[in-house]
Every structure is written in structure tokens, then in C-alpha cells.
Amino acid sequence: MADSSFDIVSKLDRQEADNAMQQAVKEIAQRYDFKNTGASIKWSGELGVEIEANADERALAVLDVFKDKLIKRGISLKALESDEPRQSGKEVKLSARFKDGIDQEQAKKVSKIIRDEGPKGAKVQIQGEELRVSSKKRDDLQEIIALVKAADLDFAVQFTNYR
User: Fold this and answer.
1) How many contiguous H segments (helices) and E segments (strands) does the chain have?
2) How many CB atoms neighbour CB 53 within 10 A?
3) pTM metric for this prediction
């Protein structure tokens, strides 16, 4: 019998992120506390987000609204990295970006967790920005998924190609 396998990836669902952005823009336009503050949020490149407002607190409040919308759309906040607000003329700007993919250091960390704490028959291969986990028993794979979900990782993970 062939091995069963799945992939561990860290990918941004761009459509869901875009939906969250549209909802945040709509809420910012409607909320009374954002009236006449110049508060706005928009995409800055493929994975970047640019927030503008007239004060640090307003910029952080816009970021909170966006994070709330991301949570409701099922996107982990571990995928979003934001800077501190910075003064830009009369405006305050705040940049944030989404992390996409698993770098080598993170891949080694996940691989070590699976080797140390996972079932003995499981094999882990690092393939670029994702990990392929395979085992003869499907129960082992279920156990590994639970193990990785329970691990306190500093990046979002999804499980794909389960066969």
C-alpha cells in the first residue's frame, strides 16, 4: 500500500483578504469616530497594506478594524505583520504586510517538532516553501495535524493535498 501524505503550507487566501479589506473600508466610512479624520486603508502592492489617519490612535484603530474583519473571514493574524505608526507630514501612516510561504528556518522547526514528538513512521520533506508529510498510517497523519496545530508557531499554517 502506498503512503498517505499531506502538505503543510503557509499561504494567504488573497480573495478572503480582499473581502476583509472591502469590509474594513466600508466600516471605516460609516463609523462616527472615523468621520473627518482622514482614516483610510488600502492595498500597497500584492501583500502590503497601507493605513493613513490623522493620529497614531486612529491608525491603530483602523488596523484593529481590519484585524477583526480578517478573523471573521478565517485568516490567521499570524499571517499579518505590522509596523509602528510613523509621522508623514500632517498624516500618520502605518504599514502592514502579509507573510506568505514557510522559510527554511520555520520549515526546520516544524520538521523537528514532527520528528521529536510525532509518530515514528512519519517522514517529513522540505519542498521549497512547504513541507510534505507522509506515513503508512492515516491515523499518524491525523495525529501530526493535531500536533502542528497545538504547537505555538509564529506563522499561520494550512494543511493541503491530504491523500
Assistant:
1) 4, 9
2) 24
3) 0.85
